[in-house]
From TrEMBL:
Localization in the cell: Cytoplasm
Molecular function in Gene Ontology: tRNA N(6)-L-threonylcarbamoyladenine synthase activity
Broad enzyme group: transferase
Keywords for the protein's UniProt record, in alphabetical order: Acyltransferase, Cytoplasm, Iron, Metal-binding, Transferase, tRNA processing
Source organism of the structure: Marilutibacter chinensis
Catalysed reactions, as listed in the record: L-threonylcarbamoyladenylate + adenosine(37) in tRNA = N(6)-L-threonylcarbamoyladenosine(37) in tRNA + AMP + H(+)
Cofactors named for this entry: Fe(2+)
Name of the protein described by the UniProt record: tRNA N6-adenosine threonylcarbamoyltransferase
Principal localisation: cytoplasm
Gcp-like domain sequence ranges: 25-315
Amino acid sequence: MKVLGIETSCDETGVAVYDTDAGLRAHALYSQIDLHAEYGGVVPELASRDHVRKLLPLIRQTLAEAGLEVGELDGVAYTAGPGLVGALLVGAGVARALAWALEVPAIGVHHMEGHLLAPLLEDDPAGRPQPPFVALLVSGGHTQLIHVEAIGRYRLLGETLDDAAGEAFDKTAKLMGLPYPGGPQLAALAEQGRAGVFRFARPMTDRPGLDFSFSGLKTQVLLAWQGSDQSDETRADIARGFEDAVVDTLAIKCARALDAAGGDTPACDTLVVAGGVGANKRLRAKLQAMAEQRGGRVGFPRPAFCTDNGAMIAFAGALRLQAGQHDDASVRVTPRWDMASLEPVVSEKK
Ligand code: ATP
Ligand code: MG
Ligand code: FE
């Protein structure tokens, strides 16, 4: 089954074709970063308009790269939420219209389920992590630990009470004068910084529980930065101290979640990590080491599929379409959407 995936929830237009027999056939991404940079954040109306401009050319490009005619598609998947309502409607409208014209089924995908399943996209089906496992979702808008009982059956174990991890990276970068969006740049700077010169708290690790809080860390960085010589070297050292604090905190909670995930059953040994912060090299190394030490495994998407992309939507949609699920013909999006309300995926064929 060849499924076109469309992602337009925020400031990235992502398109891909996932083939349930041959894997990922092609993918393309257009990022609106330059468009929003002068405003220091995403401007929703500008985002919607740019999706309108870019989506059809990207679909044509992706189909050409996949060597497919549009009529060869068996289904269309699109991000139906959560996200910016105008941006979502662009993807939903195009996806529904295309599916209707081609007389193929369409399905609205939960953006965070897309992120969550992205680590599974890499492996051939035999090597994929099998539920139950624990997922760490660390993106620009979410920081969640989820017990994945089955594909589509998600139980929230803990989440951030304030800033998301990616948001903390972006805001911390901004307060040290790095240009928008600063998260990846802060991480690059941390590579040059020395460990231990600045040490920040590992928030909420001193008490039981799986929730996070990252907004206090940002304030600690602000105070350290204001009281420093503000040299390039110091900026790098602070970046390193901040990154180490976030990475340690996430690793501590992941270990706890793996211990707790089973409830009455034995602890879980598989972790998957997704969302933009999952591209962070130090986080990947730390979680890899933790998993090895526990005798378990950890799965990540390739760095390009940690942040928003069409491939994860094509993949998540393909799993649901393959299981016989699809939506009716109305164009509906859900800007706020609880992932625990999703239907489980029960495969029709093995
Ligand atoms: P959501 O999926 O929650 O709606 P989003 O789609 O904006 O949010 P993603 O695209 O998954 O989030 O990820 C973007 C975030 O990832 C940004 O906050 C960015 O700073 C962060 N990020 C990207 N690369 C890195 C990195 N190497 N280290 C740390 N953070 C990173
Ligand atoms: Mg983005
Ligand atoms: Fe995202």
